[in-house]
Design goal:
Radius of gyration: 32 Å
CATH architecture of the largest domain: 3-Layer(aba) Sandwich
Subunit structure: Component of the replication restart primosome.
Protein name: Replication restart protein PriA
CATH superfamily of the largest domain: P-loop containing nucleotide triphosphate hydrolases
Strand content: 15-25%
Largest sheet: 7 strands, parallel
Cofactor: Zn(2+)
Enzyme class: isomerase
Number of helices: 26
Oligomer: single chain
Keywords: ATP-binding, DNA replication, DNA-binding, Helicase, Hydrolase, Isomerase, Metal-binding, Nucleotide-binding, Primosome, Zinc
Length: 839
């Protein structure tokens, strides 16, 4: 989209004025653009990609993005005016608009839903209703006592929000009162628009320009001889800002807090100096990502790493996408850094994607030591303002290199040279809710293709689909099977917990082998990691007498027991209950916990090893902004002996002193009812195993607790046999037509009435199968959890061959059938979720 060409269409002479219209993307789930009229004084400034404020509906105002400028009025409605232009220069690039459009088509959603996810909330506008007294109102006799009292409060203020009025009015029903006052025209209700992004401001001080020259400064100090405290404040300023040697330094001033270090001396004296205009105060915008690291010299690659880096660059000459398959601990990050430095030196931008925040913490510190403040960081734990600063920093050219999680694919790059997708196999790259349900790896590849950038996919355990593309020659393939520093892969052993339970050698959930290994590791002052992919204390409570179990009221799942919080919690809808003292059904006191999660393991460890320093890392312990960083920093510093965690501890973390990894409940991971279960189990167990023994002088140990040590996938983990796993999996997928030989689209029908949900699902399946055939349309069937948030679910799976069918036409057909169902009078409350390339 050529912005210059587009905007020149709208120049006009003094004799003939051309009306300009803007097609806007609104962040709402409606499958179309909206046309608005551009005010005359806005025509020269408005550009494609800029944000604007527009009215929508009867009373809302909303942030929109300009997708197109033209001269054609809408045919079916009267165009309303754009209220305000927010950007002097566009904050959304042409490449982003192209990406939004592609994603809405490919992932079968609305372009407004894409925009809503893409823009950080700090770049959106909030509309807050305000109320003010109508000065033309002159009929007090129409008001009752409560209305008169509320109006008297309003007269004392220019305007008040609903919340402020509620506090002033006490128990009164404010919305009802205001509606009555609006009807009687006693008040005016309007929207106060605020932009959420607020720059970080720092208050500074500087000497008045009258004292900048040496002789003037000397006279000031002599004058303050009789006021020693004020003189000391000026001297302190001069120690930090030596303007007596260079008066120009005074222009930048000094952070006010530096002069306020000593409360007794500084605050009152500084206040007096400011009052007497010896000092002037002013505010400056301070970036939230200040440079706290001194960039170090270029890293030195080992011969194996250098060979891999050279091979990647050579394959980029022929392929746009290269898979870098390197075993855990092989030093892939150093290779990434080398490539990033080369691309930045050429003047292009780099995006480095990581699967989730837990992994960013350690790697970001390593990257900052190399790139300093040239690097931006982008993830959901950052505040709105921090994310906006990264967004604007890319537009302004401040950040050429950004490290981020999946949402970073939406950033406004316009000169990409390289995209790195680290741990490309990770399911965290897939967005599940809300729409668009995109996969960041696939979106990144499309974005790179449009900007002629290269893509490097890195993993120790690549996804079967990615490895297949590499083996077929569509992607380049570089493999590195040597650990950094000649460290050995860990020794992996299987522990038969079924046999230990029969022999009664288990200690709670710990086999005797794992218990002794932990005790030995503690004695050697080495660290251990324990992996259990289930949080909470136990999956549910159960009565020993009547077998009652704790169930969620809204979902078809058990309530997980969280001991620290003393509550039962649903991990699907968030419903919470207090823990019953007796069985709610029979009144028995024999209510026990069943199963175990990370919280229970932590509790048992503290009993078994009272002197050990134990930490837990899961969703419950990492809700705070810097919680990941704090836990990882403490573990890295040796302040934690045993780290217990869910899958967030499996990804890319690098600790020198970890020599033992214990894996619990491996069977549950392997036997999950999903066609990727074996692949996922291999990936997860291999990844967490790779945290052990990353030093050359010490081989790590991995103990996997299982009830069935003969399972083939566990033997492949022991042998580090990814190729064997791939051969088995690709054969099965070819036989049963699963990816990479087909595309999957999952349609989930939802309704609060199970019969209506089933009827809608049956009809949708029948209409799709009539044209696509029974072999391509599977279901409907109830998912593993068939009721969530009081809605009954039915899944339909559409399997489409890669080469024999027009996928775009099929998607259009599916959307038409869904529209038919949603507009059926008897099925209007049904909702249907579309998940393209479902995981």
């Amino acid at each position: 989209m050529n912005e210059t060409a587009t905007n020149t269409l709208f120049s006009y002479s003094t004799t003939e004025e051309i009306t300009v219209f803007a097609d806007l993307i609104l962040p709402i789930p409606v499958p179309r653009l909206f046309t608005y009229r551009v005010k005359r004084d806005m025509v020269e400034a408005i550009k494609v990609g800029a944000r604007v404020i527009v009215p929508f509906g009867k009373s809302r105002v909303i942030t929109a993005v300009v997708a197109k400028l033209h001269n054609q009025p809408p045919q079916n409605y009267q165009a309303r005016y754009v209220l305000e232009l927010l950007d002097e220069y566009p904050l959304v690039t042409g490449y982003q608009l192209q990406l939004f459009d592609w994603m809405s088509t490919y992932y079968m959603c609305c372009i407004g839903e894409v925009l809503n996810v893409a823009l950080p909330s700090g770049l959106k506008i909030t509309s807050q209703s305000k109320v003010q007294f109508n000065p033309d109102f002159d009929y007090p006799e129409l008001l009752n006592e409560q209305e008169s009292a509320l109006l008297e409060q309003l007269k004392k203020h220019p305007s008040l929000s609903y919340e402020e009025l509620g506090r002033l009015a006490g128990e009164v029903n404010v919305p009802t009162l205001i509606k009555s006052l609006v009807d009687k025209r006693a008040v005016i209700v309007f929207d106060e628009v605020k932009e959420k992004y607020v720059p970080k401001m720092v208050r500074k001080v500087k000497l008045h320009p009258n004292y900048e020259q040496p002789e003037q400064l000397l006279a000031l100090l002599q004058r303050l001889d009789k006021l020693p405290k004020q003189q000391e404040v000026v001297m302190r300023y001069l120690r930090h800002v030596p303007m007596q040697r260079n008066p120009a330094l005074n222009k930048n001033g000094l952070d006010k807090t530096i002069l306020n270090q000593d409360d007794e001396l500084s605050q009152s004296s500084l206040g007096t100096l400011i009052k007497n205009e010896v000092f002037l105060t002013f505010e400056v915008i301070q970036p939230r990502f200040a440079d706290t690291f001194s960039p170090q010299k270029e890293i030195k690659l080992t011969p194996a790493q250098q060979t891999a880096a050279d091979s990647i660059m050579a394959q980029f000459g022929e392929k746009g996408i290269v898979l870098f398959h390197g075993i855990t601990g092989s030093g892939k990050t150093e290779v990434y850094i080398d490539l990033v430095q080369k691309v930045l030196a050429s003047g292009s931008q780099v995006l480095y994607l990581l699967p989730e925040i837990a992994l960013t913490t350690q790697i970001v510190v390593r990257l900052q030591k190399v790139f300093g403040d040239k690097m931006g960081i982008y993830h959901s734990k950052f505040s709105d303002n921090e994310r906006v600063e990264v967004w604007k920093g890319i537009v302004s050219g401040q950040f050429q290199f950004v490290v981020g999680v999946r949402s970073a694919v939406f950033l406004p790059f316009d000169n990409l040279g390289l995209v790195i997708v680290d741990e490309e196999h990770e399911t965290s790259y897939k967005q599940h809710d809300p729409a668009p349900r995109y996969h960041a790896r696939d979106v990144a590849m499309m974005m790179a293709q449009w900007q002629q950038a290269k893509v490097l996919l890195g993993s120790a355990t690549p996804s079967i689909e990615t490895y297949y593309q590499a083996k077929q020659g569509r992607y380049g393939l570089v493999e590195l099977f040597q650990r950094y520093g000649d460290a050995n892969l860990p020794f992996i052993a299987l522990v038969d917990v079924k046999r230990e339970r029969k022999q009664k050698t288990m200690k709670n959930e710990f086999s005797s082998v794992l218990y002794e290994a932990l005790a030995d590791n503690l004695e050697r002052k080495q660290q251990s990691i324990l992996f259990q992919n289930r949080r909470g204390y136990s999956p549910y409570l159960q009565c020993e007498d009547c077998e009652w179990t704790s169930q969620c009221l809204n979902c078809a799942v058990s309530l997980t027991y969280h001991m620290r919080a003393a509550e039962l919690r649903c991990h699907y809808c968030g419903h919470k209950e207090t823990v019953p003292k007796v069985c709610p059904t029979c009144g028995s006191t024999k209510v026990k916990t069943v199963g175990y999660g990370t919280e229970k393991l932590e509790d048992q460890l503290q009993i078994m090893f009272p002197d050990a320093r134990i930490q837990r890392m899961d969703l419950d312990t990492t809700r705070a902004k810097n919680a990941y960083q704090q836990i990882i920093s403490e573990f890295e510093a040796g302040k934690v002996d045993i780290l217990v965690g869910t899958q967030m501890i499996t990804k890319g973390l690098d600790f020198d002193n970890v020599s033992l990894v214990g894996i619990f409940d491996a069977d549950r991971i392997i036997h999950f009812p999903e066609f990727r279960a074996t692949e996922r189990a291999f990936q997860m167990i291999t990844q967490v195993s790779g945290r052990a023994g990353r030093r050359a002088d010490r081989q790590g140990r991995v103990l996997i607790q299982t009830g069935n040590p003969t399972q083939p996938v566990l033997q492949k983990v022991i042998d580090n046999d990814y190729l064997g796993l791939y051969e088995d999996e690709i054969g099965e997928r070819r036989d049963f037509n699963y990816p990479p030989f087909s595309r999957l689209i999952k349609l989930t029908v939802r309704h609060t009435d199970q019969r209506i949900s089933k009827r809608a699902a049956d009809r949708l399946r029948a209409e799709l199968a009539e044209k696509l055939g029974d072999e391509r349309v599977l279901g409907p069937e109830e998912p593993l959890v068939e009721r969530i948030r009081n809605q009954f679910l039915y899944d339909i799976l559409v399997k489409l061959e890669k080469d024999k069918i027009n996928v775009k036409a099929v998607k259009t057909f599916i959307q038409e059938r869904i529209t038919d169902i949603l507009t059926d009078k008897g099925l209007r409350q049904v909702s249907i979720v579309i998940d393209v390339d479902c995981l």
